[in-house]
Amino acid sequence: MILKEGISKDEHVNLIQNKIAEIEAAQQKLDESKQKLYDILASNIICEKGFGKY
User: Fold this and answer.
1) Of 16, 48, 25, nearest to 8 (Cα)?
2) Per-residue model confidence (pLDDT) at position 7
3) Exposed e or buried b for every residue in 43-52, given b needs 16+ CB within 10 A?
4) Model confidence over 28-54: pLDDT tens digits?
5) How sure is the predictor about 21, in pLDDT bands with cuts at 50, 70 and 90?
6) What DSSP string describes 11-25?
7) CA angle at 19 for the pair 12 and 37, rounded to the nearest 5°
8) CB contact at 8 A, 40 and 27
9) Are 16 and 24 in contact (CB under 8 A)?
10) How many CA within 13 A on the CB side of residue 22?
11) Is residue 18 within 8 Å of 31, Cβ to Cβ?
12) Any residues with CB less than 8 A from the CB of 15 and at least 6 apart, and which?
């Protein structure tokens, strides 16, 4: 994943921690989007004629 040559251990750790933070932020956004969809389902929405056909 990361080449060792020319990069210190601290730099490796920093790169990996930054990537973990990016992944966690993406997961948080997905969780929020998923929750919004669950909320829509739970709200007993009434679809207009033709909604969802296309």
Assistant:
1) 16
2) 85
3) eeeeeeeeee
4) 999 999 999 999 888 877 767 666 554
5) very high
6) HHHHHHHHHHHHHHH
7) 170
8) no
9) no
10) 6
11) no
12) 2, 7
Q: What does the chain come to in residues?
A: 54
By three-state DSSP, how is residue 29 classified? helix
Cα gap 43→49, rounded to integer Å: 18
For 1-18, the pLDDT digits (tens) are 556 678 888 998 999 999
Q: What tokens does 29 get?
A: 């956004």
Which amino acid would we find at residue 52? G
Tell me which amino acid residue 45 is.
I
For residue 44, give the 3-state DSSP assignment.
coil
pTM for this prediction: 0.66
Residue 7 token pair: 């990069």
Q: Which two three-digit tokens encode residue 10?
A: 């601290």
